[in-house]
């Protein structure tokens, strides 16, 4: 009997749905796609969640993983639902506690026609059998607790050495957003809560390997105060970071949202910092103020990249090249990724996850053209990808930001 053909994205370029680096396995933006790359239930979020999760499980099986092996799940969704409803809908697919750390991001656009959600997963084979498993609960506002039927929602999860902390806004345990109209205050609150979660897992923000966040704004003046607030919680060497504009957040008073992933080892009963190797070729751009972040770090057979943008090389002025031109800027940005991987003896073909934010009007044709440009730059089969179209990136002149994880 012939096995059914696995689902795929509606692009012509050869692409992987899952891949592994070190102990981790990745699934990119899984949607409710059928074997022909079509969305099976256009516009229906509930049915698309079911179909997308089935596709996540199918992709994980290729890496000898199941849904029980997922440590971190992230959903970019387009709906009037709030985050708690989406988290609850996703949590139902995880029958064993602790559930993974689930991050959600409301988006006005999706990459393909009829799509309402795409789901990214990071798994670690058989982590539930490891001696070192720790979880920290995430407070659920009283008015949303019935969604979870008494289950504990995971705020942070440690699966051996890998730690995932779910993204969050400045919403407190009662569902109230603190520091309304103050993005800096919200940023500090979020980072302090992440620090508390990591501490309960035997780690600290300094163990972070990746920070990913969102903010409202399209000027440097709007970005910088929040950026400085986040950065103040790290010292060098900090994590690889990616922060891009958002166009929706829940609750509506929220101005920013941040998550972190970290790695820390347990040795002889003590939690220890894992040293990391980092490289920053001179050509690769720098931030417009001194930050503790790194552009590329390697540890435990994984290379984590910061979000790369088409900024002028050999410079920290933040000026873009090829202003406003998505495809040329994408090729240029991918050249930075190639530069960053080269000192580790790696190339874009070694990427096992790629997360791409790009300016779009929301058409599938734009996504397909963007994916074609990525394929030309990778020079082989595309890795698992999360493709997130945005009405605008940091400003009209900068149209793309890409980060990823490579086999180290």
Quick summary:
The chain has 408 residues and is of the alpha+beta class.
Which descriptors would you attach to this protein?
single chain, 408 residues, alpha+beta, seven-stranded mixed sheet, six-stranded mixed sheet
**Mean pLDDT level:** 97
**Uncertain spans:** none
Number of helices: 6
Cα shape:
globular
Strand content: 25-35%
Rg, alpha carbons: 20 Å
Q: Structural class, from secondary structure content?
A: alpha+beta
Give the CA-CA distance, first to last residue.
38 Å
Largest sheet: 7 strands, mixed
What is the N-to-C order of secondary-structure elements (H for helix, E for strand)?
A: EEHEHEEEEEHEHEEEEEEHEHEE
Count all strands and give the number.
18
**What proportion of the residues is helical, as a percent range?**
10-25%
Characterize the structure shown:
The protein is of the alpha+beta class and 408 residues long. The protein is built from six helices and 18 strands. Strands 6, 7, 8, 9, 10, 11 and 12 form a seven-stranded mixed sheet that branches. Strand 14 (296-299) and strand 15 form a beta hairpin. Helix 3 (183-200) runs parallel beside helix 4. The radius of gyration is 20 Å and the shape is globular. It starts with 17 loop residues before the first strand and ends with a strand. The mean pLDDT is 97.
